[in-house]
Amino acid sequence: MATGLVTDPIYQQLNKILRELIASDKYKVGDKFMTERMICELYNVSRVTANKALSSLVAEGLLQFKKGVGTFVRSKPKEEPTPSIASFTLNTKAAGMVPSSKVLAFNRLPASEVEAEVAEVLELGTGEEVFLLKRLRFADNIPMVLERRFVRARFCPDLQKEQVEGSLYELFIQKYKLNITGSEETIQAVSLGEEEARLLEVEQGKAAFLITAVGYVDNSVPLWFERTLYRPDGLAFRCQVRPYRHEKRLQERILLSPENRIQRA
Question: N or C end of the chain, less CB within 10 A?
């Protein structure tokens, strides 16, 4: 029976599975790897998806394509530390400041009342519910982060408003025993609207970082979707850049202590 991939994004999942195969004892350096056709039949994916995954692994240096012969294992994947998910609470403490939160909204909604984009990203089923949280996060009583987050209620059915005043990551891991395995984030520079600027105590129209993210448990199951605004004078991002693989990987968000912030006129 073919091993199907049943959740999105297909390409990332296939790439991960093939990397694990290359790393396993099934293949040694120099061994011939599966063809596109074999991958399509085994995982029930299109040839375009199979080709994209193989090309990515060739570019990464794990596979080597020999014209007229096939694809071969060139090297084994190196073990890399997984970038840690940024915790505002931990980052604030690491910067020598005291974290705190104000819960602006806490609602439990049926999937039918959630924006279509959010419902699709979270893969919400019929009858499923989500918690909608809106929080203002402080460092030494200075508003730094305005967060709007949807959390699938099936993973934390008894969540209460008073519980979300602290670290959600800690709550997910310690109370609900969730295996948080990562997040996908998009970072944009935006201008703050009137209400956003008022809450963050900056001038309307000032620039800010907007982070749109999906958090996952067990590698590919979506747990939350967030749109979070960060004041740019108190935040830095550190990336890992690897020319050979043509990749840029976000390693962490760093909350800046007051003495390290960029001073603007």
Answer: C
Q: Residues 107-142: pLDDT tens digits?
A: 999 999 999 999 999 999 989 999 999 999 999 999
Q: Which residues pair with 147 in a beta bridge?
A: 135, 228
CA separation for the pair 123, 258 (Å, rounded): 40
> Is residue 222 reached through a cis peptide bond, with omega within 30 degrees of 0 on the bond before it?
no
**CA pair distance 223, 122, nearest whole angstrom:** 7
Query: What does the pLDDT look like over 143-190, one tens digit per residue?
Result: 999 999 999 999 999 999 999 998 998 899 999 999 888 888 888 999
Q: What is the CATH number of domain 10-73?
A: 1.10.10.10
CATH match for 100-229 among 3.40.50.300, 2.40.128.110, 3.30.300.20, 3.40.1410.10:
3.40.1410.10
List C-alpha distances in Å: 230 to 88, 106, 164, 263.
Answer: 11, 20, 19, 16
> Measured between alpha carbons, how far is 178 from 169 in angstroms, rounded to an integer?
9
Q: Locate the domains of the chain by residue range.
A: 10-73, 100-229
d(CA 3, CA 40): 10
